[in-house]
Specification:
Length: 251
């Protein structure tokens, strides 16, 4: 069940806050779309990184850019122990990062729960008149790949994805390897050459594991969090290109 909360329209962007119930979990989200009455557009799901939230600056900037430039709908939800899923009001900093690391290491259900949350959100958004559910993309780096790659592998409605700042490492490394091998949609993969969290050799292994032949790796100098603006813009351009053309109607 979805509950629509606050809504505002400013600078030709309609922003809606919502909350979805999936089992016993609250799933808080934000949806950005063109104003009411606009043509149907593709949908991009955005997964934020550890210590961030659905309201993180780069998430909001990416969403607004895709709405303005391409008339897309963009949705972000809070990840486990992040954002409005928390009860203590902490929305950033080291605490959510450390708690996610602990949950990732000790709770084997975390990945499937996040996949279920995203698929439930996608079911709800697919019913909206402004969303073209035949054109769905995913964008998520770092934790957004840890929990988003399994979604891309499991969800046939996703037809293009931006992933990265992650490698074949961590508590769910075998899950990530298996899911990467089953990915068939186009992939745009970002690597930071001096990534201190997930070294580039592990990132290259993950990129190599993707089952799709339609994949590109973009590497930039710098540490984990130093993704340059050009890389963000390039990833957005990839989604615009891959989702921009509506598929032919099935007769």
């Amino acid at each position: 069940m979805v509950t629509w909360l606050e809504e505002e329209t400013a600078k030709e962007i309609r922003t809606r806050r919502f909350e979805l119930t999936v089992g016993e979990r609250r799933v808080p989200g934000l949806l950005w779309t063109p104003p009411e009455g606009a043509e149907r557009g593709p949908l991009v799901l955005v997964g934020h990184g550890a210590s961030g939230s659905k309201s993180e600056g780069y998430v909001v900037a990416l969403a607004r850019g895709l709405v303005r430039i391409a008339g897309m709908a963009v949705c972000a939800i809070d990840g486990p122990v992040h954002g409005d899923r928390r009860l203590d009001g902490v929305t950033g900093g080291p605490l959510p990062f450390l708690q996610f690391s602990q949950v990732w290491a000790n709770d084997p259900t975390i990945t499937d729960a996040m996949v279920d949350d995203w698929r439930a959100v996608l079911d709800v958004l697919s019913e909206l008149p402004e969303v073209d559910a035949r054109r769905v993309g995913y964008w998520g780096l770092s934790m957004g790949t840890i929990l988003g790659l399994p979604l891309v592998a499991a969800e046939p409605r996703i037809t293009a994805a931006v992933l990265g700042l992650m490698g074949l490492a961590g508590p769910t490394v075998e899950r990530l390897r298996a899911d990467a091998m089953s990915v068939s949609c186009p992939i745009h993969f970002l690597v930071q050459w001096n990534d201190q969290l997930f070294p580039r050799d592990r990132a290259f292994e993950l990129f190599d594991a993707f089952g799709t032949s339609d994949k590109v790796l973009v590497a930039n100098p710098g540490e984990h969090g130093a993704v340059p603006d050009a890389a963000f813009k390039g990833s957005a351009a990839f989604l615009v290109e891959r989702l921009g053309q509506a598929p032919h109607e099935v007769n």
